[in-house]
Design brief:
globular, mainly alpha
Length: 192
C-alpha cells in the first residue's frame, strides 16, 4: 500500500545476514567486530527501529552465548559468577557496544534523519508530554503499557477489551513468546 512491504523484506533479509555475522563473531578481540559493524550499518540504513531491536537481541545473545561457552569450556567451577566468566561477558558486551557506536557514526546521516522524522511526527506529539515524570519520552500510562506488553501482548486485553495506552494494533509488541525465556535457560543450563 505505502511501500513498507519492500522495507520489511529488506529488513528481514538484512537481519538474516546480520545474525549469520553475529553467530560467526567470537567477541574476543577488536578485529572480530567488523562484520557486526557492517551488518548493523546495513540495518541502520533501513530503519533505526530495526537497529535498536537487533541491538537488544544482540546484547542478550552475546550474554547467553558467552556464559554458555565459558562455563562449559573454560571455567573449572562452572559458576556463572566467577571472575573469568564475568570478564568474558563484559568484554563481549563492550565489543558489541563499540560496534554499535561505530555503526551510529558510520550511518549517522540515516540515524539523524530517522530521529528527526520521529520527533516531528504527530504520533510522538500525541504520546509525549512536557510535564512527564519520565522526561520527553513517555508519560506513566504509556510506560506501564510497555512494561505489560513485555510480558504478554494480550495482558491488557485484546481488541475492543484492550485497556492499554496505545491503539491495540499499533502499540509496541515487545513479547515474542514465553518459550523464548525457557529456551534461553534451557540452552544455558542443559546437561551435556
Amino acid at each position: 500500500l505505502w511501500g513498507q512491504h519492500f522495507d520489511f523484506g529488506a529488513a528481514y533479509a538484512t537481519v538474516t545476514l546480520y545474525v549469520l555475522l553475529l553467530i560467526r563473531c567470537k567477541f574476543e578481540k577488536i578485529n572480530d567486530i567488523w562484520g557486526i559493524v557492517f551488518g548493523l550499518t546495513l540495518i541502520l540504513l533501513i530503519s533505526y527501529y530495526w537497529l535498536y531491536m537487533v541491538g537488544l537481541f544482540s546484547a542478550v545473545y552475546v550474554l547467553v552465548v558467552t556464559i554458555k561457552k565459558y562455563i562449559g569450556d573454560n571455567d573449572r567451577n562452572g559458576s556463572i559468577t566467577s571472575r573469568q566468566v564475568v570478564r568474558y561477558v563484559f568484554r563481549g558486551e563492550l565489543l558489541l557496544l563499540l560496534a554499535g557506536i561505530l555503526t551510529c557514526f558510520i550511518g549517522s546521516f540515516a540515524l539523524c534523519r530517522g530521529i528527526e522524522e520521529y520527533l516531528n511526527s504527530a504520533r510522538t506529539a500525541a504520546v509525549t508530554t512536557e510535564h512527564s515524570i519520565f522526561g520527553v519520552f513517555y508519560n506513566a500510562q504509556y510506560f506501564v503499557t510497555d512494561v505489560a506488553r513485555f510480558f504478554s501482548n494480550n495482558l491488557l486485553g485484546v481488541g475492543n477489551e484492550y485497556t492499554g495506552a496505545y491503539n491495540y494494533y499499533e502499540g509496541t509488541i515487545l513479547c515474542t513468546s514465553g518459550l523464548a525465556l525457557y529456551a534461553i535457560f534451557y540452552y544455558i543450563f542443559k546437561n551435556k
